[in-house]
Amino acid sequence: MARLPQGVRRRPKDGLLEKRFTIKGKRYSVYAGTTKELAEKEQELREYIKTSIHISNRNITLNEFFDRWIELKETNTKSNSLNTYRRMYNKHIKDYMGHRKIVDIERTEVLELQAKLSKKLKPVSVNYVITVLNIILNDALKSGIISTNPASKIKTIEQEEKAAETIHRALTLEEQETFMKALEGSYYYHYMALMLCTGMRCGEVGALTWNDIDYKNNVIHINKTVTRDSHNKLVIGSPKTKAGKRDIPLNDRIIKILEDRKGMYNNILPFSTTNIFMSVYGNFVANSQINCEILRVLNRLNKKGVHIDKFTSHAFRDTFATRYIEQGGQMQTLKELLGHASITETMDTYAHVLPSTKQDEMQKIVIAF
Fold first, then answer.
1. Which residues pair with 351 in a beta bridge?
2. Which pLDDT tens digit goes with each residue over 80-133?
3. CA-CA distance, 121 to 86, in Å (whole number)?
4. Which of 198, 183, 182 minimizes the C-alpha distance to 248?
5. Residue 301: band (very low, low, confident or very high) from pLDDT cuts 50, 70, 90
6. Cβ neighbours around 9 below 10 Å, total
7. Full DSSP string of 311-359
8. Quick one: 290 exposed, middle or buried, by C-beta within 10 A (0-12, 13-18, 19+)?
9. The CA-based dihedral angle spanning residues 247, 252, 255, 256, taken in that order and rounded to the nearest 10 degrees
10. Distance (Å, rounded) from C-alpha 288 to C-alpha 301?
11. CB-based burial, 305-344: b 16+ in 10 Å, e otherwise
12. Model confidence at 5, in pLDDT bands (50, 70, 90)?
């Protein structure tokens, strides 16, 4: 048997390797299955101690750790993500196991939480809660409070339906025409029309200024989005991903939407001459406001005997992508227009549109022999 490196011992109770070391009078330990992994964890912990608020109290509860953890995260995490972490933790984790000492939390408790949430939440929401818990406990692992993360490698709950049929719902051509006709005259008509004609995210449209419209180069510059800060206030932030910073070419339809929108300032828009879109209260437009307007129009149509299944603002983005593919657009170009990080993301999201498109394209191919 190979001799263990100096300062490393094998724990009798679980067979894991343990390395102990001291920094500024405080003693720390890391655990791993191999010496290579142990060395990596030691280096990672030493770096973590140097650059963060390190919590060495092994009696700390999950709630206490979360309060310090979220404070540390404020220095390097987007405000929108911080809000999500807080919301998920406070609503689904805090009361269930927040009072428990982190060192006492077992894998079975995490599985029980997952099962409990499954009875009232959709699979995607349950999976996200467990992901947040895993992120928190992984940092507790890095800090040496626990030797293993009880939330790691928890199997995700599978969707009963394909994402293409649920989350990514595109309007049919008939639904699209019917809804936009019913939307005419709405304060948010141009907002939704621009989403439909560009595939922009709701927050990206809300963050647009007139300076972002580059008529010289015939493009819209997308370089910011409406998000929420740590106090849940709507603010301007950076795009969802690095790929989110992009240019979208103008066409006649888009230019007409923008011209009509600018014309409204002479009548009913006293709030801003810089931002293209503001809410009726003079603030940034929240995604929830657009969704409420969509629901209002759908209800009005329903009373007239015209039924369209419910959808949210994201459907405009999906509808743009669907129409683009149906009309022969290239996936690589669509990736750039949507601001996806990779072609794989675009393919995975909109692969459901391709079967009928492939059928049409196949009919155009003539091979002589």
1. none
2. 788 889 999 999 999 999 999 999 999 999 999 999 999 999 888 999 999 999
3. 17
4. 198
5. very high
6. 11
7. --THHHHHHHHHHHHHTT--HHHHHHHHT-S-HHHHHHHHGGGHHHHHH
8. buried
9. -150
10. 20
11. eeebeebbbbbbbbbbbbbbbeeeeebeebbebbbbeeee
12. confident
Tokens 């408790």 sit at which residue?
109
Helix (H) or strand (E) holding 82: helix 79-88
User: SS3 for 94-123, per residue?
Assistant: HHHHCCCEHHHCCHHHHHHHHHHHHCCCCH
Total residues belonging to the chain = 369
- Please report the pLDDT score of residue 215 as a whole number: 95
DSSP 3-state assignment of 274?
coil
Q: Is the pTM for the entire model greater than 0.70? A: no
Tokens of 278: 């503001």
pLDDT 10s digits, 225-284: 998 876 778 888 888 778 889 999 999 999 999 999 988 765 554 445 689 998 888 889
Dist CA 16 CA 327 (whole Å) = 58
Residue 25 exposure: Cα atoms within 13 Å on the Cβ side: 0
Q: Which long-range contacts (CB under 8 A, 24 or more apart) does 123-129 make?
A: 123/156, 123/157, 123/158, 123/159, 123/160, 124/159, 124/167, 126/157, 127/156, 127/157, 128/88, 129/88, 129/92, 129/93
Q: Count the alpha carbons within 13 Å of 7 in the hemisphere toward its beta carbon.
A: 12
Q: Which amino acid is at 203?
A: G
Predicted confidence at residue 160, as pLDDT, reads 56
Two structure tokens written together for 95: 């009361």
Would you say the C-alpha torsion 325, 287, 156, 339 has a positive or negative sign?
A: positive
| CA angle (183 as vertex; 179, 188 as ends), nearest 5 | 125
Q: Are strands 26-32 and 17-23 parallel, antiparallel or unpaired?
A: antiparallel
Among 1-15, 134-148, 293-307, the range with the most confident prediction by mean pLDDT is 293-307
Residue 115: how many CA atoms within 13 Å on its side-chain side?
Answer: 6
